Amino acid sequence: MLKSTSTFAIIAVAALSACTADFYREAGQSVDEGGFGNPTMTNTLIANGELAAVEGLNRRFEDEVPESINFGFNSASLDAASRAILTRQANWIRQFPEVRFRVYGHTDAVGSASYNRNLGQRRANAAVAFLTSQGISRSRLEAVASFGETRLAVQTEGRERRNRRTVTEVTGFVAGHPGLLDGKYARVVYRTHLESAERNVFDEVTAGVAN
Q1: Choice between 118 and 42, residue whose per-residue pLDDT is larger
Q2: The whole model's pTM is what?
Q3: DSSP 8-state code for residue 180
Q4: What residues make up the domain containing 163?
Q5: For residue 190, is it within any domain?
Q6: Which of 30, 54, 87, 122 has the largest CB neighbor count within 10 A?
């Protein structure tokens, strides 16, 4: 009986450790599965191929456009570099109308936890406001969240610009979108990226002019 109890305790501790590790994972490294630890929803997404498609799209998003922008110390203002990156994000998002996104705000470790939570929220709000100004429906930016200082990209207590950021990520598909009624999520994942195609055409045209 003692051995059985010990085994159960070890399993419980391992499970708790796994949940804790997942909770503190950096935004952009995990996919929304429809709820907080909802195994039924996760199993459904896996079964219909949606989860794999979301993960594939998120990897593609990270590969093709910068997922993060950075901020000045104690600031939620967008500089020229941030606006340029968000414009690229908006161009990408516009080409995938079936897809939902989230924007997460982060801060460095300077200041109180409550202040940084509010500052992270202001940064996320600023990024979303810019994306909507570029024609992205607010309804597709399903959530704006602040992690404050709890998910540092660089572990330091000082003023680290890389920690002062927002992260945009793919989190799911628009419910009932006509392009997904047949469940062919892979077709969305591998859709030709129009921006890169247009760039290739432009390069060919300019090369022809040069010749």
Answers
A1: 118
A2: 0.67
A3: G
A4: 39-210
A5: yes
A6: 54
